[in-house]
């Protein structure tokens, strides 16, 4: 039986889907990483274990953002630069926290709140906007092929 303190911090909901399967699947992985980080904090894991999850989050986020940004450029998304800036701010915030933990500080609970709130808001507003733009352009097909080429 799961203990109450092992509850996921954030659960994937259908309302978070932007209608692009590959990207939705990547978002679900980000939710999982945030939940793993939360679980490690709750169980007071060793600093090394927490840093391992933070680094995995950083690495996966960079990969995901690169995929999204490439897709937006190819789709000629007009708000690309603003979206990219949001990504850069996210990456900088996580890197700053990693550096603080490496310097001996405890991981900030503010980071957990930031990760959860940022990801949900980013998906519901910014990501849905580029997905709708892509759909309005009549390019609903071919995304799977785009990602196959991108990740090959």
Structure description:
The chain has 152 residues and is mainly α. It has a single domain, classed as Four Helix Bundle (Hemerythrin (Met), subunit A) (Up-down Bundle), CATH 1.20.120.50. The chain has helices at 21-42, 47-74, 80-102, 109-136, 143-151. Helix 1 packs antiparallel against helix 2 (47-74) and helix 1 packs antiparallel against helix 4 (109-136). 18% of the residues are buried.
Question: Which key features would you list for this structure?
Answer:
single chain; 152 residues; mainly alpha; Four Helix Bundle (Hemerythrin (Met), subunit A); 5 helices; 0% strand; disordered N terminus
According to CATH, the homologous superfamily is: Hemerythrin-like
Number of domains: 1
Helix content: over 70%
**First-to-last CA distance:** 41 Å
Secondary structure category: mainly alpha
> What is the CATH topology assignment?
Four Helix Bundle (Hemerythrin (Met), subunit A)
Order of helices and strands: HHHHH
- Summed up, the helix count is 5
> Strand share of the residues?
under 5%
Named at the architecture level, the CATH assignment is Up-down Bundle
How large is the radius of gyration? 16 Å
Sum up the overall morphology in one term.
Answer: elongated
Spans of at least 5 consecutive residues with low confidence: 1-5
CATH top level?
A: Mainly Alpha
Overall pLDDT, averaged?
87
